[in-house]
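Submission checklist for the structure archive. All mandatory fields must be present; incomplete records are returned to the submitter.

[x] Identifier: NADH-quinone oxidoreductase subunit N
[x] Organism: Streptomyces paradoxus
[x] Residue count: 507
[x] Sequence attached
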Amino acid sequence: MSSSAQPMAASLVQSVDWLAIAPPTIAAVAGLVVLVADLFLAEHRKALLGWMSVAGLAAATAMLLPLLDGDRSTFCLTGDAAVCSYTADRFTLVIQFLVLGGALLSALLSVTALKDARKELPEGEYWFLLLSSAAGAALLPASRDLATLIVALEVASLPAFALVGLRYGDRKSSEAALKFFLSSVTATAVSLMGISFVYATTGTLYLTQIADRIQNVDGQFHTLAQTGVVLTLIGFAFKTAAVPFHFWVPDTYVGAPLPIAAYLSVIGKAVGFSGLILVTVVALPSYADVWGPALAALAALTMTVGNLGALRQQATRAYSAVRLLAWSSVGQAGYLLVPIAAAAYSGDAEKSIGSTVAYALMYGAVNLGAFAVAALVGRTKSLNRVADYRGLYASSPLSALLLAFFLLCLAGLPPGIIGLFAKVTVFSAAVDAGLGWLAVVMAVNVVIALFYYLQWTALLFRAPEGEPEKHRVPGPVTAAIALTGVLGIVLSGAPQLVLRFTGTGLF
């Protein structure tokens, strides 16, 4: 009996594919190393923590390269190797590249920000929280069961609350963190209720099993399953800052340290959208008639409210550049929702999702670039108003040219070819899916957005008021601006690389 029991016990032990889980694991380990190192480093050597964090994120990003050979899965069900909790496929790697690359650029901006505000921001805690959030964000796109998905979502979100409100004695920062916390906790509670309903009707948390079983739910549980689908979608709509769940965004971005606002604008959205894609396209394709129209309506509402909110900022005399970027990010979230909604109507859902991922990569690069230039201006202009950018070309020509390029990319105008290419790709996804009305709404919103993007761009080249103020660019900020600039320019020269990277074998 003992001899038969031994192999049975051994079969229950799962092997772990350490290479597959290396990117989020390295980010998490780097966070622990930084936290411990903070206890032993003297105050004047705390800057080393920042460079340790940058090195950790760079190493985590580099570990994506060995995974390009083929799909890898781990933490699979005993007896069914096809049902796993963690899968490193093309979709996972693209989103992890966006998350870890974005976190790396945010870390470069943070090195300078912490040096300038050392008394206001505790360095050890700051770097630990940033790396922890990045680890959770990198885990989420690989999650293939709802439990891991929610855990990853919270690991990404909880440290972000603390990062927003970490500045000592800053009331605006505390209020921003509270708004962010309350909205996110509400989203999580709604998502958990929806997931519990889905689990009650299917008896599983694995996404692929849910996709099979939810089609055969008993009639008496059909309403419960539909309610679970809707509640789960509402929870993720909070995370993506879709209207009407966007109210926390402007105040949170303004109150947070600027590198954290940049982090939330890209990594926060990547987390929300990747979770939304996994829940809708992978777990609930049979409920496309429920989530398709809902996401199409959310997309139209989000892009319209976001762009009108950004336009309304210009009615105030001293409107903040960060607040304008916050409203812009809400509008951009609407564009990102369009292909996901189109996947419900299209015969090729993979192509539609590829459009969203391609747009997310473009948006991530140029939006982080815009925040990097904002970080540069904010070093001498603490209010960071759009008016402070007047005549930036006279004092820092290269920064002004790159900011103009980033804004034109966001607007979808040449020479920002990658921005135009991404918008055309999203527009085509809507048209191909038969959502002509949504394509029209998107076209109108692109025109609305042109006004505030072009007005800001023109301001950069106007004659400055008084003597132009020279901007000394710190090394880390220079690196962040240069990396985003090079990426945007290269992709504008060869935009087909983005679709080639995101359009094949996503699932």
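[x] Structure attached
Curator remark: The longest helix spans residues 171-202. The chain has a mean pLDDT of 84.
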